[in-house]
Amino acid sequence: MRILHLCHNHPDLQPGGSEVLARGLFRELRDRHGAEGLFLAAVTAAHRQRRPGTLLQAVGGAADEMLVWLGHFDRFALSQPDTYGLAATLAPLVASVDPDIVHFHHLLQFGAEAVDAIRRAAPRARLVFTAHDFFPICPQEGQLLTTDGRLCRGPSPDACRRCFPGKPAEDFVMRDLQMRDVLSDFDRILLPSEFARGRYLAAGYPAERLALMPNGIACDGPAAPRRRPAAPDGRRDRFGFFGHINRFKGGMVLLEASRILSEDGTAHRLTLHGGTAYQPDAFLERFNAALEAAPMARHHGPYTGADLGGLMAEVDWVVVPSVWWENAPLVILEAFRHGRPVICGNAGGMAEMVRDGMDGLHAPIGDPAGLAAVLRRAAERPELWDRLASGILPPKTIAQVAEDHISLYQELLDRSVPGSRAPAEAAVAA
């Protein structure tokens, strides 16, 4: 089986959850299932400068992983205006791979135009799309989060115009029509959580094209050991944040919660692990001020996958304070793999993954005082940590996820009709 994977960035340059999952899946399919193909990641000038004479670049010395330089992207419309460069680059590359399956992990940077270009270059291939977030249905950075920080339950012309007051109503209509047209080209749209699937169903996408496909993680090294409580009374009061520092991941909310705990005398330690790359100066100023105001918090900067076990060993709880719904954060699976209960928001994909009172605790989203109350309860009740830690179930592994994908790919290849399209031979003739 030959598979072309396309992702909006490479985990060696931007180690986000979807990038890590996409590359991990590609390597698992290659190493354990004998799949051939290519992992193609898009980059911009923020990550790499364009090289003379080509849009393609090598990355990490791997012959089957490449970068394609794509600038000039329209994030609102998910459109790549450089259609000439896109087609001139993708057509020969796709022809050389000759894929049976083309799996898009995002439309960012590639744009809606890439789907049509690849369909033309590989008319017999089956197309799969994983919706790692809500970009196709939400122009506000795919977060379903309003510009003033409120959770949004779904797009509508009036609601979207409140986030983009300068855009005419027809822009939202045209965006929605284009996204529906583009996603209709895919034989299957995969969602990593029931919550995400429900958001796409509510937006009017057909149920028969939407399939649940949970995420998984690599389990190469040993899990972090059970940390011994430092305090004589057995307190479990060390909290850890793992993820990129930005306004969506809730680091500011967590720092304010830590400040509240310090003011009322609740003993605790908070460590934040994650980089701040590509963040605006105004946000970084607010973050540094919040860090200074929280005396028990420390920011330790970026980390790698190889570092994670050692970092997890130093904390009792993993906190996921995201201020948006989330879809299916890999950090929750990592926490469970290392036996750490999770404290997260009480809605969306994160609340679906963490069972309140069974393997973690829920806190109100975007509410520092509410989060502080949950952290205080966690720190002061060591028996609670013991009970929740014992309730953690083994997370799904990337090996299991690869098995699920192979089964899906084979099902699509065995069908004479990909999705609702005509048979492949008829498509070629047309």
Automatic annotation (TrEMBL):
Residues annotated as domain Glycosyltransferase subfamily 4-like N-terminal: 16-219
Domain of life: Bacteria
InterPro entries: Glyco_trans_4-like_N
PANTHER family registered for this protein in UniProt: GLYCOSYLTRANSFERASE, SPORE COAT PROTEIN SA
Protein name listed in UniProt: Glycosyltransferase family 4 protein
